[in-house]
Amino acid sequence: MWPFRSKKTPHVVTEKTDYPYGLFVVTEAGYFLIRDGERLKTESSRVISSWHSRVVLSSESAVSHVPVTGKIGFRDGTLIKNKADKKEYLISRGLKRLIVSPDVYEKYGLDERDTLVVSESETNFHKDGEVLS
Questions:
Q1: Per residue of the chain (133 residues), what is the pLDDT tens digit?
Q2: Is the pTM of this model over 0.70?
């Protein structure tokens, strides 16, 4: 999945750049969120889509001066479904909360159609939280 909305070829930034806080950059080395002079690695464009944020195409040379200090997963409030085992979760406080009853969607005003189908490794990035029933 390409994280850009435009069909035209995006501009690739190649010169050293200090991107503003909150932008995602995609480089040859992967996907990153810029925060306070650091980069947080994300696993996929599906993770980025959960943040509903801007994404810019950059080169690694443009951001090599910004250290990678950690990783970031899905945004809180994101519904995910593990493609491998079909289990569904709500991300809350960075934890994955297993949904064990279809009544959970109605109880919390969630729409099952908003669920992102994700890989097992994307699911397992998040530690287990309390079960939602």
A1: 445 555 666 789 999 999 999 999 999 999 999 999 999 999 999 999 999 998 999 999 999 999 999 999 999 999 999 999 999 999 999 999 999 999 999 999 999 999 999 999 999 999 999 999 9
A2: yes
**Helical H segments across the chain, by residue range:** 45-51, 60-63, 103-107, 120-124
Residues of the chain by 3-state class (helix, strand, coil), percent to 5:
20, 30, 50
- What are the structure tokens assigned to 108, written together? 């919390």
What is the DSSP pairing of strand 68-71 with strand 88-92? unpaired
**Which residues, other chains included, contact 75 with Cβ-Cβ below 8 Å and sequence gap of 6+?**
50, 51, 52, 91
Rounded to whole angstroms, how far apart are CA atoms 40 and 71? Answer: 5
Strands 95-98 and 88-92: antiparallel
Which residues lie below 8 Å from residue 54, measured CB to CB, with a gap of 6+?
A: 22, 23, 24
